């Protein structure tokens, strides 16, 4: 029976994504998100990236194609150098790029084959915070990417982003205290010591103490390394 790819309702997406909460392992949950993404939409591959506003860093996490799981953790970029990624962050809406527009906006690092000439990018958001994106290069069939499909992709990204952000509560508790984690999350969003102190209602000295204890627990030298470590562990997104 032919499948109506372009008629994925928000209720169907909500039903499928809500089932992912039953997956306890963080890495398995990320893979399940990609599997669900490919099941719902007319795509043959999906690559998930995390994002940190510190240095505008996007970091590859995992990819899924029709034949294999792809680990892309060595793929790190300043998103400002890849307009396709940067546009997704600014707009927080799914977009499709094809033809000449795609070639102009992508870098050679992300064009894996001469057969690749288009991409669909869906943002992953936790509330107002942009935490990453899913990019796909291969489509199941030729179709018109209208606003309804793109809106469904954006909706999926909001649900999936929330799940990713909340999937490692137990690990968070083991590694950092609640206040330490709160400080590190603000740092990952690009907030200064003064801004964090104002938001949390504590002194700048206390913020610095939380940072110092967090660095020691994580075994890193500075804030940037701490955020990168927490992103890799899936503790913050």
Automatic annotation (TrEMBL):
**Pfam families annotated for this entry?**
GerE
Annotated keywords: DNA-binding, Transcription, Transcription regulation
- Its Gene Ontology molecular function terms? DNA binding
Keyword Transcription regulation annotated: yes
What processes does the entry annotate via GO biological process terms? regulation of DNA-templated transcription
CDD domains assigned to the protein according to its UniProt record, in alphabetical order: LuxR_C_like
- InterPro entries this protein is in? Sig_transdc_resp-reg_C-effctor (IPR016032), Tscrpt_reg_LuxR_C (IPR000792), WH-like_DNA-bd_sf (IPR036388)
Entry superkingdom: Bacteria
Name the UniProt record assigns to this protein: Helix-turn-helix transcriptional regulator
Q: What range(s) does the HTH luxR-type domain occupy?
A: 169-234
């Amino acid at each position: 029976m032919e499948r109506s790819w372009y008629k994925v309702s928000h209720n169907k997406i909500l039903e499928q994504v809500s089932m992912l909460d039953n997956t306890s392992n963080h890495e398995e949950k990320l893979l399940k998100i990609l599997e669900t993404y490919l099941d719902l939409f007319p795509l043959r591959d999906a690559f998930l990236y995390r994002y940190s506003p510190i240095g505008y860093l996007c970091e590859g996490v995992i990819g899924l194609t029709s034949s294999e799981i792809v680990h892309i953790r060595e793929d790190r970029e300043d998103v400002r150098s890849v307009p396709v990624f940067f546009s997704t962050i600014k707009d927080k809406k799914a977009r499709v790029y094809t033809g000449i527009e795609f070639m102009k906006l992508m870098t050679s690092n992300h064009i894996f084959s001469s057969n690749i000439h288009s991409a669909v990018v869906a943002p992953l958001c936790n509330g107002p915070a942009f935490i990453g994106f899913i990019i796909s290069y291969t489509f199941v069939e030729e179709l018109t990417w209208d606003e309804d499909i793109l809106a469904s992709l954006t909706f999926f990204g909001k649900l999936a982003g929330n799940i990713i952000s909340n999937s490692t509560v137990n690990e968070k508790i083991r590694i950092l205290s609640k206040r330490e984690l709160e400080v590190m999350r603000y740092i990952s969003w690009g907030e200064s010591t003064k801004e964090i102190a104002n938001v949390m209602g504590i002194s700048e000295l206390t913020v610095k103490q939380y940072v110092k204890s967090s660095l020691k627990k994580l075994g890193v030298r500075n804030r940037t390394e701490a955020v990168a470590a927490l992103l890799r562990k899936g503790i913050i997104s």
